[in-house]
Automatic annotation (TrEMBL), chains A, B:
Keyword Thylakoid among UniProt keywords: no
Keywords: DNA-binding, Transcription, Transcription regulation
Transcription regulation as UniProt keyword: yes
The protein, known as: Helix-turn-helix transcriptional regulator
Length: 103, 103
């Protein structure tokens, strides 16, 4: 039981998996693009969630020397081990929506 | 992105996946046993989470005609489709703990 709780401690909350799947889908993703991808998330919340994902060694942050400066994120090797779970959660989400809302 | 968010809306929070994995592990599980399995959860929280899982058609609740009465839970067919995700999250949780805490 504890192992699955460990995972959920890291991945829990409304946003983390959606953020990871946005970065995962595009391989590298700018902050502003993630903000656009993840429906309903605020700038402040995205910063906080990305910080936590960095602390948990799931994403790397790089500052691009552009005008204006852009910040880019990519999954770490450890982060990429989540790919299977993200794919399963995506497929399950589609099935669940059909089951519950009949869409 | 929305599909993965749909999943996390249902599974999110600290407790749901741990509750599902307890029921899943034992096939059928009494309320009091789940309370014991899931480290740190309160009676009130467990009732609330189980109610939400029932609404989302993931678990079935049955009242056993025992003295005193016992309430038992099992996964629905739809709930059992989460088995793969729960297994992956369990395995990932073990890897993550090694990576982060070096246990």
């Amino acid at each position: 039981m504890r192992a699955v709780q460990d995972s959920m401690d890291v991945l829990s909350g409304k946003w983390k998996i959606a953020i990871l799947s946005s970065i995962c889908y595009y391989n590298k993703r700018r902050f502003s693009d993630i903000l656009h991808d993840v429906e309903g998330i605020s700038n402040k919340m995205l910063s906080k969630e990305l910080k936590e994902l960095e602390i948990n060694k799931l994403v790397n942050r790089s500052v691009m020397d552009t005008q204006p400066i852009t910040v880019q994120y990519e999954l770490t090797e450890h982060g990429r081990t989540l790919q299977t779970i993200i794919n399963h959660l995506t497929a399950w989400g589609i099935e669940h929506r059909k089951k519950i809302i009949g869409e």
